[in-house]
Amino acid sequence: MVVKYEYYDEAKDIEFKTNQVETLSAQTFTVGTTSPNITQPITSAKFYLMRDPADNLENVFCAIKAVDGGGEPTGESLSSGTLPGVEVSGDPEWGWAEIGMTPYILQPSTQYAAVVNWSGGSCSIGGHFNSPLYPEGSFSTSSDSGASWSSTSAIDLLFEIWGNKNTLYSRYVSGDETYAGVIGRDTDGISGINPVVDRLNSISSVDNLITGSLVSGTSVLSFPGSTLPNCFILEQRNAAPADERRLWIKV
Q1: Cβ contact 220:212 at 8 Å
Q2: Which of 4, 12, 30, 187 has CB atoms 3.0–4.6 Å from 111's, for a disulfide?
Q3: pLDDT tens digit sequence for 44-72
Q4: pTM to 2 decimals?
Q5: Are 125 and 171 part of one and the same domain?
Q6: Which CATH number characterizes residue 123's domain?
């Protein structure tokens, strides 16, 4: 299930038009500001755009990046995507343009930058400068492909970050094919774990395993040597039997 995560979708009251691929627009955003403050496996980003039909707009590009100490985009792209220009609404119609993004999991309470530019023609991107502004981010521009940035907290771009629904559920892990049951009753907390790792590594559909909320007094173990993207976290329960392990899986 795909859901809308972080967003700012006030009515457009300002716009910016460029026709140079080296001119970048960026909006910083902080996970948990207008969305649940949880890990967010993103699939797409939307921006409010309008192209000039007289121009040959080729592609619209988006990159999600980390931010530096000054709140500006920095480093390599954490996630990126491209949208063919013909899929952008043509003048005089504005519309939300959805750009499919490569997989990445945004982290709670973390600030990122969504960087947008385009090639082959002119395009306009919509923003908002009247109250209410987006409280945990700002709008930035770069005219030199991101070598330097100029930002303002008085304007925000309209944006939406979409991704797979992040639902936590718990199952006890065992050797059967349903992975329901207890790993083992090993008081040292080690025996019985590696066979489960081997079985989980053979399941390509289980592609994201994340930490659940652990109650006070529990201990956390991680599976060693996993080939899946994220570490597996086991919860050792205080309730009898004390050596049960619980695996939290994102679905």
Answers
A1: no
A2: 30
A3: 999 999 998 888 899 999 999 999 999 99
A4: 0.69
A5: no
A6: 2.60.120
